[in-house]
Amino acid sequence: MVASEMEKLRELSFEIGPIRPPSEGGSSSLLIRASRNCPWSLCKFCYGTPYNREKFQLRSVEEVKRDIDRAKEISELLKALAKKFGGLYRLSEIINPEFLYGKEISELDREELKNFESIVNVYSWLRAGARAAFIQDADSMILPTNMLIEVVSYLKQVFPSLERITCYARAKSLARKTLGELKELRKAGLSRLHVGLESGDDDVLKYVNKGVTSQELILASRKAKEAGFELSLYWMPGLGGKSMTKQHAINTAKVLNEVNPDFVRTRRFVPRKGTPLYEEWKRGTFELLSPHEELREIRMMVERLEITGKLCFDHFINPAYKTVLGIVWLFKQDYDGYKMPEEKARVLEIIDNGLKIDESLYVRAEELSQLSTL
Description:
Blueprint: H1 2-9, E1 29-33, E2 35-36, E3 57-58, H2 61-85, H3 97-101, H4 110-127, E4 132-136, H5 145-158, E5 164-168, H6 171-176, H7 179-188, E6 190-198, H8 202-207, H9 214-226, E7 230-235, H10 245-259, E8 263-266, H11 276-283, H12 291-302, E9 310-312, E10 320-323, E11 326-329, E12 338-339, H13 344-354, H14 365-368
Parallel strand pairs: 1-4, 4-5, 5-6, 6-7, 7-8, 8-9
Antiparallel strand pairs: 2-3, 9-12, 10-11
């Protein structure tokens, strides 16, 4: 019976996009792809490179529902196998390419890799408690409201254990939704939105071709909060380079204070190969901040921050330094971060201590820019 279940498991796959927020990653969230790629793809720091600059596509509701059904089949098979193997944790012995296909992961063909990624995602999600799902790709809020409601409702119907359903949303797309539409989506079960603020400064936003103004970001974010969504806003220290560092920090704090998001997630700017900003840096027309300059910019923003949410540094590219024991991150890496305003003084103290560490020990943005995993 185990052999037949394993054979069936090898036949089931669903489509998974290339990126997701760390807090909604493969270790905790079921990943359901409702659209492909990014509808904007013109930001100078990203430029659609995580999606190989492929054209944006909406998937049909029928396609997405089929994927949800396949994820359900995989979950039921894994649960059945878990009972025979003595629990989900024991299944880790068989969920590997060698056991499933008799190959190393580098030897898997395209369909085998898709199958393996699907199994791993569902398995990780089950082990994490089967409580969260993330709707991919870069801007699910661009979907027609009735379509997104249908996807979210079906997801809840098929997986009643879900407590949180989340997605990325561009502020422009969010602004186009009426408050009524957003309330309908919230009622259907969509509960958290991840929005790229990047900067609260209009000069920086224009320079990096974000396609949105600070005021539009504020209005869209406030509307999402009014509709009842939990809101994560992302800002990018260093995005203004040396020339706009002060205005970038000060005006980002102003926008965040206007919105008061549930989470402020910090993503230090690192030049990404294949983007216009990477080329500008290479030509010398864009100057990266040094590690201490980055910390001073973060401090400038944090000391003006007056939110009641959480400030997070949940990404490996955030400030870190080298020791004989390995890399040490300056800030804690968990998804809940530091509660504001209660832990604001603690964050400022961490920054001040970080400024006492020799700058040469820090992992520089220049080093990180060479990584293929960005």
